[in-house]
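Researcher: I'm preparing a figure for a lab meeting and need a structural model of a single chain. I don't have an experimental structure, so a prediction will have to do for now. The sequence is pasted below. Please return the structure as tokens so I can convert it later.
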Amino acid sequence: MPKRTRKRHREGEPRFDVYVKNPLPIEWTTKKDLQRIPSPFVFELDPEMLNDHGLLLSMRRGAFERTKNPVMAIEALLIAHEAKLFPPLWVLEWLRDTFKAYHAAQGRKSMDSVMGLSDRRGKRHAFTHLFIEERNNILFHDMWRLNSFLGISQGDAATMVAERLKETPNWNQTGYPMRLPTSKWICEEFQKTIWNRSTVDKNIFAEGKWTKNQWENFLSKFPKHTYENLLPQIKKAMSSLGK
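Model: Understood. Here is the structure written out token by token.
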């Protein structure tokens, strides 16, 4: 696989993942018409990326880099295909390493083991971690809504989502053991995710078109005692949102 060209990234400067369209805009060209080929590239927040595919891919990449969970790479491949994109290079590199290890083992190791889908004892499957990741993404998304649209601080938003989860009966229906996260942990982890980026364009999400009634319904899902003292600032924020 060709070596990637790595650009130096200045700290604080926004950085976006870039993807290649599949299929390419054209199948062949002449040297004369080379400059007129439509760009095959899109970046993660490009308007061409419908259904939040760019964000979903970035979230999978971030989760994979943090946890090395192979399910994140598998899901990224599926998301890219649905978005009519070639698989991201980090997914292809993971597949290369996996196939190389499987080939070197010459059948002495299962693909499940080589891919890292189960631990050495076979007791904890990668999907255990996936369910935890999915739960966290729901919490972080709601935190982002509260913080970005309603002006609620990250600390207060973390308390709201933590208390709502705590008061939800049978919230864990996966069959896997999962502990309730604390508001402190939720807030700290949120700051490491893409949701904490100042570059996330609120207007490309459905929430940007929510009406006041929709925001009130969303807010009603949280225990009232977690935001009662925040109502003045919430109402002020809602006054500038959709009618």
